[in-house]
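Example for tutorial group B:
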C-alpha cells in the first residue's frame, strides 16, 4: 500500500468516516473485487466519492474543484489524447494565458503533469476532482468527440441537402451522443429543455427523469434543426408544435424515435420517445405477477372467447403484459392478429398491423377488417373510442378472444369506462372475463441494498403493526447511477368477473361497489401487492406510494392480517 493510502486511511478514521473494523472490511472488499482502495470505498458504500475527494484534497494539500460548477468544453478533448485522459484520469478544463487547468484524480502524479506539459506546451495547474464525476466526464467528452469525427466523415462522403449542410457539425455530434447515451442507459424518453442561461438535458430511466450534463445553450438551435432534419419537419417553423419520427440503429438494434417540439419563451422544447423493437417475451413471473394472479389469468386466457383488459397509465407496461399473454396462446393451431400503434414486439405466427390514421387505418377500421380474416385471438393495442369499444366487445361475443388496454386508475374503473363508451351492461357482462390493473415500481438496486426503517407515518399509512418487519432500500452506487434503484417490477390487481359483480353491473351499481365486492372475494389492490413486494425486498414503500392509492384502513377487508401473506 502506498503512503497516500496510509495517510488517507488515517484521515478517514480521524474524521469518523471509518472504524478499524470497517476499514478491514473495505480492504477485504478491495481484495475480493480486485479494486483499488478508493474504488473499494465507494463501491462498498463506506463513503461518497465526493467526500473522499474533499478529504484527499485536504490530506494532499491540493485544490479541490467541483466539476458541476464548470461547463466543460468538449472541444478540449483535442488538447490531450483519450489514452492519456483514461490512463491518468485527467481532463483539460481550460487554458488561460498559456496555463492549462487540468482536472485530475491524482494531482500529485508528476509523470502525468509532465506529459500534459509536453503535449500541450502549456504550464499545468493540476486540481483534484470527484473521481466518479471526472471519469464520467472523460467518457462522455471523448465519446462525443468520436461521434463528431464520424459525423464529419459521413457528411464529407455524400451529397447532402442544403438545409442539412447549414447545420453545425458539433450539433450533429451532440445529437448522435444524446441518442447513443440514451440508448445505452435504457432511457425511454429524452427531454431537451432550454432555459435563459442553460440547456437542460434529462433522460427518463426506470420511469424517473434524471438530469444529465448536456451541450452548451449556444448549440440549442442547431440541435433542434438537426433533429427536425432527421424527422423531416419544417425547419422554418419555430412558432408552432411539430411532431415527427425517425429511426437509428444502436448495437445492431433498430430504435424508433418519436419527436415532439413545442415553442416556449426560451426556445423550442424537445421531447423524444425511444421505442426499441424486440423479440424478447417474458413470462408472468418475470414481470412480477403474483402466483395466484398469474394462474387465474392463464386459466381465463384459455377460454374459447371473451375479453381480457389491461389498464394503467402510459408507460405502465401494459403492452409487455399483453404480449406475454399472447405468447401463452401462440401456436400454429390458432390465428392470432394484432392492431397496434406502433408495433413494438415481433412474434412468429402473429399477423401484426400498424395503424396509420393519416390514411384512415384506425383501430376501429382495422379491427373491422381483420374480423374477416378468421382470427381466433385479436389484440387491440388500445380501446380509445366508442366505435373500437363496440366492435371489440361484439368480437368477444362471437367466438373470439379479445385482448386490449384501457386508461383507467384501477380494475373496477374499466367497467365505468366501457359504460361511458355506450356499451350496455348486459353486453359487458357477457363479454368481459377480467380486468388486470398494473403499475411499475422501481426495483431496489441489488448492489447497494441495505435495511430500511420507514418513518412511523408511512408504517401507519400502510397499516403495518409489526415494527420489526424487514424492509430494504438502496443507498446509491455506480451501477444504479446513485438512485438506489435498478430496473422495474410490476404491481397488479386482478378483478375476475363473478356472478355478484355482474349483478352489480346489471343494477347500475357504481365503481366503489364493484371494488368492495371484488375485495371481499379476494382481490388484492395495487398497493397491497406493492406492500408484499416491499416485504420481499423488491421495492420500497416510497415507490408504492407514488403509483398506488392506499385505501382507508378502517375497511375490514383491508386489515393487515388479511392482506399480508
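The residue assignment follows.
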Amino acid at each position: 500500500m502506498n503512503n497516500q493510502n496510509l495517510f488517507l486511511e488515517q484521515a478517514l478514521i480521524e474524521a469518523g468516516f471509518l472504524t478499524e473494523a470497517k476499514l478491514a472490511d473495505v480492504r477485504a472488499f478491495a481484495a475480493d473485487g480486485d479494486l483499488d482502495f478508493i474504488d473499494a470505498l465507494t463501491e462498498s458504500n463506506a463513503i461518497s466519492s465526493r467526500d473522499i475527494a474533499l478529504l484527499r484534497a485536504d490530506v494532499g494539500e491540493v485544490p479541490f474543484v467541483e466539476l458541476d460548477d464548470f461547463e466543460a468544453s468538449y472541444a478540449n478533448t483535442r488538447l490531450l489524447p483519450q489514452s492519456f485522459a483514461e490512463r491518468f484520469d485527467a481532463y483539460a478544463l481550460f487554458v488561460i494565458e498559456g496555463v492549462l487547468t487540468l482536472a485530475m484524480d491524482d494531482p500529485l502524479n508528476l509523470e502525468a503533469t509532465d506529459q500534459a506539459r509536453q503535449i500541450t506546451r502549456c504550464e499545468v495547474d493540476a486540481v483534484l476532482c470527484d473521481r466518479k464525476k471526472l471519469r464520467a466526464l472523460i467518457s462522455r467528452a471523448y465519446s462525443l468527440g468520436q461521434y463528431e469525427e464520424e459525423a464529419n466523415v459521413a457528411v464529407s462522403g455524400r451529397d447532402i441537402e442544403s438545409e442539412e449542410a447549414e447545420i453545425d457539425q458539433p450539433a450533429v455530434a451532440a445529437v448522435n451522443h444524446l441518442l447513443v447515451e440514451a440508448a445505452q442507459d435504457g432511457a425511454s424518453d429524452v427531454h431537451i429543455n432550454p432555459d435563459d442561461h442553460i440547456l437542460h438535458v434529462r433522460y427518463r430511466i426506470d420511469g424517473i427523469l434524471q438530469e444529465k450534463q448536456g451541450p452548451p445553450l449556444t448549440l440549442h438551435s442547431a440541435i433542434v434543426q438537426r433533429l427536425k432534419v432527421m424527422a423531416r419537419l419544417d425547419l422554418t417553423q419555430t412558432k408552432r408544435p411539430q411532431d415527427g419520427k425517425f429511426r437509428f440503429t444502436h448495437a445492431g438494434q433498430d430504435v424508433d424515435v418519436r419527436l415532439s417540439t413545442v415553442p416556449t419563451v426560451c426556445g423550442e422544447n424537445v421531447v423524444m420517445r425511444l421505442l426499441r423493437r424486440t423479440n424478447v417475451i417474458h413470462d408472468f413471473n418475470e414481470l412480477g405477477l403474483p402466483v395466484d394472479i398469474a394462474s387465474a389469468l392463464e386459466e381465463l386466457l384459455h377460454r374459447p372467447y371473451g375479453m381480457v383488459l389491461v389498464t394503467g397509465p402510459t408507460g405502465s407496461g401494459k403492452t409487455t403484459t399483453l404480449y406475454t399473454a399472447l405468447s401463452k396462446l401462440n401456436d400454429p393451431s390458432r390465428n392470432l392478429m394484432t392492431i397496434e400503434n406502433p408495433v413494438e414486439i415481433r412474434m412468429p405466427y402473429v399477423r401484426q398491423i400498424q395503424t396509420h390514421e393519416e390514411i384512415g387505418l384506425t383501430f376501429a377500421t382495422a379491427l373491422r377488417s381483420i374480423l374477416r380474416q378468421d382470427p381466433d385471438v385479436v389484440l387491440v393495442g388500445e380501446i380509445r373510442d366508442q366505435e373500437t369499444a363496440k366492435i371489440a366487445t361484439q368480437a368477444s361475443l362471437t367466438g373470439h378472444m379479445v385482448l386490449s388496454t384501457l386508461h383507467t386508475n384501477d380494475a373496477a374503473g374499466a367497467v365505468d369506462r366501457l359504460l361511458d363508451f355506450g356499451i350496455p351492461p348486459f353486453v359487458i357482462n357477457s363479454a368481459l372475463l377480467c380486468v388486470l390493473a398494473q403499475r411499475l415500481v422501481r426495483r431496489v438496486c441489488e448492489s447497494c441494498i441495505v435495511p430500511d426503517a420507514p418513518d412511523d407515518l408511512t408504517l401507519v399509512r400502510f397499516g403495518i403493526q409489526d415494527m420489526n418487519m424487514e424492509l430494504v432500500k438502496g443507498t446509491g452506487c455506480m451501477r444504479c447511477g446513485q438512485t438506489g434503484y435498478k430496473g422495474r417490477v410490476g404491481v397488479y390487481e386482478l378483478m375476475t368477473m363473478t356472478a355478484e359483480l355482474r349483478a352489480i353491473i346489471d343494477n347500475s351499481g357504481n365503481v366503489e361497489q364493484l371494488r368492495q365486492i371484488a375485495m371481499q372475494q379476494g382481490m388484492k389492490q395495487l398497493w397491497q401487492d406493492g406492500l408484499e413486494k416491499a416485504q420481499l425486498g423488491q421495492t420500497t414503500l416510497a415507490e408504492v406510494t407514488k403509483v398506488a392509492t392506499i385505501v382507508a384502513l378502517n375497511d375490514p377487508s383491508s386489515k393487515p392480517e388479511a392482506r399480508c401473506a
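The first strand starts at residue 90 and ends at 96. Compare this with the pattern of hydrophobic and polar residues in the output above.
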